[in-house]
Amino acid sequence: MDWIPEGDDRSLYLRPVLFASEAHLALRPARACLFVLIAFPTGNFFGADARAVTVAVAEDHVRAAPGGTGAAKCGGNYAGAYRAQEEAARRGADQVVWLDAVERRWVEELGGMNLFFVYGEGDRAELLTPPLTGTILPGVTRDALIVLARDLGLRVTEAPVALDRWREDCAAGRITEVFACGTAARVTSVGRVLGADGPWTVGDGRPGPVAGRLSAALAAVHRGEAADPYGWCHPVDRDPC
Ligand SMILES: *Cc1c(COP(=O)(O)O)cnc(C)c1O
What we know:
The chain is of the alpha+beta class. The protein folds into 2 domains: 11-42, no CATH class; 53-222, D-amino Acid Aminotransferase, subunit A, domain 2 (D-amino Acid Aminotransferase, Chain A, domain 2), CATH 3.20.10. Helix content is 20%, strand content 29%. It has 5 helices and 11 strands. The strands form 2 sheets. A 6-stranded mixed β-barrel has the order 3-4-5-6-9-10, surrounded by 4 helices. Strands 1-2 form a two-stranded antiparallel sheet. The N and C termini lie close together (11 Å). The structure holds pyridoxal-5'-phosphate (PLP). Residues 73, 109, 112-114, 137, 139-142, 182-183 line the site of pyridoxal-5'-phosphate (PLP).
């Protein structure tokens, strides 16, 4: 219990890991594995102040291809992504935007997070997120935000988003916010995009109100302050031993 940190943006992160543990080099699925559950106290993934992040579009690197392992939380997906992450960091970005491997045109994910695009404002805001086609990790936070957004009366569409459209709709003011989500970072707004043909800003470049509302709604469920009609929360015994 002492490990569970106090504070709004703090949590005890649980990460299950499964890896082959046998003394064997054969090219076949492992017959002996070690399953461990790592628990570690975490603060906000991107630091204490909730700023919007800058993202760089990965032009030369691919995270996941059709028929591959992109939909799984599999170690190889992450090892192969570090090169692009390093290049993005050199360009001054916090995270990589992954495009689809075939046409290099469709926006898939952001680093280790799923992406949402917000059209319009207030109660008439609509959300758009890329569909789960097998190359995108089906994040539980993505799922939860789709449900919470619909409960707030916002329309949510799962449809492919072209990179060009992202840029054009920001320039035209149609896209008002973009945010990424995942267990570790919860909801993170994207303020600026570095594309091959130059940078562009999303909205006013700062965290937006729709991201804020959804983040607060999710946090309220996490902390047991909001109703949990879908049974997402599992109480654990305070003193199991
Ligand atoms: C973990 C992860 C996500 C987010 O998944 P959650 O279940 O919401 O934590 C999204 N994309 C990638 C590539 C990930 O590794």
